[in-house]
Protein: Arginine--tRNA ligase
Organism: candidate division WWE3 bacterium GW2011_GWC2_41_23
Amino acid sequence: MMLLSMENRKSGINKTAQDLISKAVHKLYGLDKLTISVDVPENGSFGDYSTNISFVIAKTLDRIPFEIATEVAHELSSENPKIEFEGTLYSIFEKIEPHAPGFVNFTLSDKFLFHNTMDINLLNETYGSSDFGKGRKVIVEYSQPNTNKPQHIGHARNNFIGSSLSKILAFCGYDVVKTNYVGDIGIHICKSMLMYIKHGNDGLPDKKSDHFVGDFYTMYEKEFEKNPGIEKEAQDLLRRWESGDKEVRAVWEKMNSWVYEGWKKTYSDQKVEFDVWEHESEKIDVGKEIALLSLEKGLAEKDETGAIIARLEKYGLPDKVLLRSDGTSVYSTKELQLAKDSFEKYKFDKRLYVVDVRQSDYFKQLFKIIELLGFDWSDRLVHIAYGMVSLPQGKMSSRTGLVVNADDVLEDLTSLEEEEIRNSIKMPKIVRETAEKVALAAFKYGMLKVDTKQDVIFNYEHVTKFEGNTGPYLLYTYARARSVLEKGGFEIEGGKFKYESIPKEFSMHLKERALASVLVHFPEYVLKSAGEYAPNQIANYAYEIAQNFNSFYGELPILDASPESLKKFRLYLTHATMVVLKQSLSLLGIEVVEKM
């Protein structure tokens, strides 16, 4: 008999099913080292879990999948694992049965669902956490803005993905270091500086300071259209900066300080934080070591101008300049040095780069160079490529002026939500605070619910709705559950409510069972999200919770349920929903609201 401990359950019940299937297939057919998939069926009538293992091994055995499924289901049923609650053993699965044309379906027992609901109430915010990543360090590099303008809506997606991944990985026990590598020097920075020197009259910001700097970058773009020759002036500024010109450095420091001050509020409003800040200007003289090592290893060679170029064409990648002919480093060389320094400092198990999909080839080059240089940690580098953000009216462009700043988006969303919330909350201060939380939920969830690799068309009207797959809908669901508990005077009572207090004839209603079984899946979605670096897994799981709770709430009485033991169970189920929904949202960087 297999006894499932609380520690085993941290990996999710699907892992238990995988282990059972592995043993059964070995016992029946002598097969090992199989890839065993256990999924949650879209149709609840097919059980809580399902496996296609019969199809996987049918060809090897030269058997009909349904026959195999029947044999496997019979073997699994005889080994149905138990779980101990308060000295009593209960079966985890009510039934394990074959289903045509060859699936094996698992249905969780009511008793297991009941006790799992009680455990959620007792474990509270630790439910779903694990030590899966214990002893492993992960560097998550995200945001990486340039100090020539405020952050736009695309930066916000980067911020939200990186921040959420950091939370999810930490929840799984990883030691996470959140880092921001800022592009604070380069020709693009000098463009803003040039316009300020020409037209700024040495003035101080008269608006949010990063927006003030950004206006000069926009000014440059417009002036460049009329006079392309100004690019030489910007290049001259960069050369003067590199040579240590005090006057240019003073302007650079002043304008950068304004940008950092503006970003401070942007990050604060978005609830985004970092452990480490690194700056491109600090790496301006590094990289020569990497370039010379590339020469020594035969990976690179000098061209006729004296530039050092990594030859990558034979690996199906474009060649990459590592050192200019004048001996100065390029951005990628600094990035190579940064990766090397980072590994020497942290000995990381993974380093994640959250950077948009347009840089995919660049990172392939970068990682290939590190591999060819003989660094055995090259396979620990991962590019988290995310799709582009556009607006309903088209792609963003600095040249056309179709760029939406992240600050403006959040303020617009707050104004829209404030109008809606004012109808239900009358205290002005509470209205504003609630609107800010709901707006940020709309913003973050609107980005994070989409598969990271896919593009996002950000539509204000869609993300602010209080129904459907939106952040406000999830917050409303949480507030609704909380209101029910307040009216019912709910208290945990140290977990004294036991299954035995339910009448013997009790069996879960279909709506109760659907909600309780969804809550079981939380640890599985957390590990899946961490393993695939996919916050959208958690986001859409949270939506599934909300749908099931609102269906349960709409069809069954909670406060008026009878007998009293049934009412009590439904209150516990409501509280468990709150716990898991709150934790899911927290992993997305979204704060719940108590009333709406």
About this structure: Residues 425 and 431 are 6 Å apart (CA to CA).
